[in-house]
Amino acid sequence: MDAFIFDLDNTLYPASTSLFPLIDARINQYMHERAGIPEDRVDELRRRYWKDYGLTMVGLARHHGVDPEDYLDYVHDVDVASVLRPQPELAHALSALPGVKVILTNGSLNHALRVLEVLGLRDVFTEIFDVRLAAYRPKPYPEPYQETLLRLGVPGSRCVMVEDIALNLKTAKEFGMATVLIDPGNGPGKGEAYVDVRIDEVALFPDAYSRFARGKKWS
Ligand SMILES: [Mg+2]
Prior knowledge:
The protein is an alpha/beta fold. The protein has two domains: 3-14 and 85-215, Rossmann fold (3-Layer(aba) Sandwich); 19-75, DNA polymerase, domain 1. 44% of the residues lie in helices and 11% in strands. It has helices at residues 19-33, 39-53, 56-64, 68-75, 88-95, 109-119, 142-152, 166-174, 205-215; strands spanning 3-6, 100-104, 127-129, 159-163, 178-182, 197-199. It has a six-stranded parallel sheet with strand order 3-2-1-4-5-6, sandwiched between helices. α8 (166-174) links the parallel β4 and β5 (178-182). The radius of gyration is 17 Å and the shape is globular. The mean pLDDT is 94. Magnesium ion binds at residues 7, 9-11, 164-165. Residues 7, 9-11, 164-165 line the site of magnesium ion.
């Protein structure tokens, strides 16, 4: 493989840490306090915008005149260091993967930098592609994948993508990538044909990958 494309949130650290709920709460707070949406409509609109646009932010920009940059700064303003710890073994194992390692996240660059810094993974990745990469078009839309491959200068068939959201791997597979789902407990497998392998946590990826590289087949 030439490139390893990693999602950030709930992929490089487990969903069981309480980081994402902090961001979640900031999103609700933003919708009410900054965008002026009545509290009792926040949940419904959030669900609708997420469904219609793939990101709450895009709906807020379209229908409430929200500045995406203001939104990104606000919702990611959480104390990352209070819930994440350095992962030196993970840093070592990921660094040893034979190829370029990049981040592709629907979050912001600053958030990614803070998370990677606390985890001690900053030096593992040569690029961080955030939600600005394709003009706020998020995964699973094809644009950010296309742009990532363009920037890397490699075809999808030379890439592995590691993600905690299965649907985001569907697009990856359409681009010919090998796909790895982070699925703690390997929950009820839905048998998605576009998921090549499921692992409990990212720490298991390097081993899974070396088996794949030897046999050209995930096991
Ligand atoms: Mg994620």
